Amino acid sequence: MDSAILIHLEAGRCTSGVAEEEIHVWARDCFQSQHYMRRSDKDYRYYCLVCDSRFELVSALFQHIETPACDATYRGPLAGLRKYVKMKTSQVAKDVQDSSEEQ
């Protein structure tokens, strides 16, 4: 569920204007980022805290957590990231709705 929203936004075709780079900024700005980001790895910014798999996109990390690929869950630092991303996507959705109501 959570990964689907991010895939939509990262594709860059959402009417909100949010795209991949903004999602990276959200992930970086989350206070838990030092736990799931590797700033030194330019190809794979994110990694699983359980199995150390690496991912280019936040949506890919979320997809990994949402499948039985490993024992990773939305707990600890990833719960913080999930909560932060939900807050940001809710703000975007509200802004889009407000904008459409003004027109």
Question: Would you write up a description of this structure?
Answer:
The chain has helices at 2-10, 20-29, 58-66, 77-102, and strands at 46-47, 54-55. α1 runs antiparallel to α3. It is built from four helices and two strands, in the order ααββαα. The N and C termini lie far apart (30 Å). β1 and β2 (54-55) form a beta hairpin. It is mostly helical and 103 residues long. Helices cover 52% and strands 4% of the residues. It has a two-stranded antiparallel sheet with strand order 1-2.
List keywords for this structure.
single chain; 103 residues; mainly alpha; 2 strands; 52% helix; 4% strand
N-to-C order of helices and strands: HHEEHH
Count of extended strands? 2
Decide which structural class fits the backbone. Answer: mainly alpha
Query: How much is the average pLDDT?
Result: 89
Stretches where pLDDT is under 50 for at least 5 consecutive residues are: none
Cα-atom radius of gyration: 14 Å
Helix content: 40-55%
Main beta-sheet strand count, sense and barrel state: 2 strands, antiparallel
Q: Count every helix, treating DSSP H or I runs of 4 or more residues as helices.
A: 4
Task: Kindly estimate the percentage of residues that lie in beta strands according to DSSP.
Answer: under 5%
Walk across the major sheet and give the strand order: 1-2
Estimate the global geometry from the Cα principal axes. Answer: elongated
**Ends apart, CA distance between termini:** 30 Å
